[in-house]
Amino acid sequence: MFDNNKKIFTAPLAGITDKPFRTILREFAPDVSMVTEMISCHSLVEGHKNCIRNFDNYADEGNIGAQIFGADAYLMGEAAKILQDSGAKWIDINMGCPVPKVATRAGAGAFLMRNHKLAGEIVAACVKAVNIPVSVKTRLGWDEAHKDWQDLIRVVADSGADFAVVHGRTRAQGYSGNADLPTKPDLPIPIIANGDIKNIDDVERVQSLGYDGAMLGRAMLGQPWIIGQICGTAEKPQNVGNVVLKHLDLIIDYYGAKSGVPMFRKHAAWYSAGMPNSAQFRIRVNQITDEGELKKIIKDFWSID
Ligand SMILES: Cc1cc2nc3c(=O)[nH]c(=O)nc-3n(C[C@H](O)[C@H](O)[C@H](O)COP(=O)(O)O)c2cc1C
């Protein structure tokens, strides 16, 4: 799993790294390791129809781990089985999400950093349920006073986790401040570094700290080719507008135009960031509900015939 490009991971980003965006990323980096958006074990096991990603098939998606969240070890194991059957190459368990709905109300995500025993039970249940690798994605700890990630890593490793991703912030930090990973300590499983990794220099920095791989999240927004540049498999395309149009088509195929057009607004904003007249472009995009009209203003903005 940790060969060549596979040491580079794309991060799970809820509402962003859906199947359409992953298709775009995969074109630039065929061998990169990806993680899906987080998926609720309840929603998956109950087969909620309104959550399209419950029905994704990963068989054609290359090296991809499916991420689940939840606080019920049995249901997490059942969810892991479903994802294995859908073609996921490994199961990733969310132990870092700070959103109150997940971390406090559901006792899942980052809350597992406060309950190592349950974290271990969840990993053990997933390891027992599937015959593919199981990883966890976590943070440095709950808050500044509880940066006990190394203890958590030892617990999940003892329970059978194959590797872990560590985001160099605490739950209390959310996404503010700088990610700050120390030199990699001696731990029993490979650790992938995450947080504020934006380019090849950052990848090399975390490698020099001893980490076994690097995971990029927000750096991919509006520039999915960055993953290809880091993996050495692609450059920035001549005309970004063609990528934007393809991404829009994929989103519409997947969600339908009614949901897809408004959903695409954030991507349009990221793709156009920093370009001349991008503010006016964004204002127009945010008013549009029609697929044809959206395509037209994208073509105009990027000068595509
Ligand atoms: C909009 C958004 C959605 C995210 N969704 C998830 C998620 O579903 N699962 C997860 O483990 N982390 C999630 N994260 C955290 C990222 O995977 C990553 O750990 C974090 O953004 C730091 O990495 P970066 O600085 O490279 O973006 C999310 C972050 C953002 C900003």
What can be said about this structure in brief?
The chain is of the alpha/beta class and 305 residues long. It has helices at 19-28, 41-45, 73-85, 100-105, 116-129, 149-158, 200-208, 225-231, 240-255, 257-272, 278-287, 291-301, and strands at 8-10, 33-40, 64-69, 90-95, 134-141, 163-170, 191-194, 213-216. The protein has 2 domains: 4-231, TIM Barrel (Alpha-Beta Barrel); 240-301, Non-ribosomal Peptide Synthetase Peptidyl Carrier Protein, Chain A (Orthogonal Bundle).
pLDDT averaged residue by residue: 95
Which secondary-structure class do the elements indicate? alpha/beta
How many DSSP H or I helices? 12
Strand order of the largest sheet: 1-2-3-4-5-6-7-8
Terminus-to-terminus distance:
43 Å
> What would you report as the Rg, rounded to the nearest angstrom?
19 Å
* Secondary-structure element pattern, one letter each: EHEHEHEHHEHEEHEHHHHH
Uncertain segments are none
**Biggest sheet features:** 8 strands, parallel, barrel
CATH architecture annotation name of the largest domain: Alpha-Beta Barrel
Give the overall shape, derived from the CA principal axes: globular
Q: Quick one: CATH class of the largest domain?
A: Alpha Beta
CATH-defined superfamily of the largest domain = Aldolase class I
- Total DSSP E strands: 8
Strand content: 15-25%
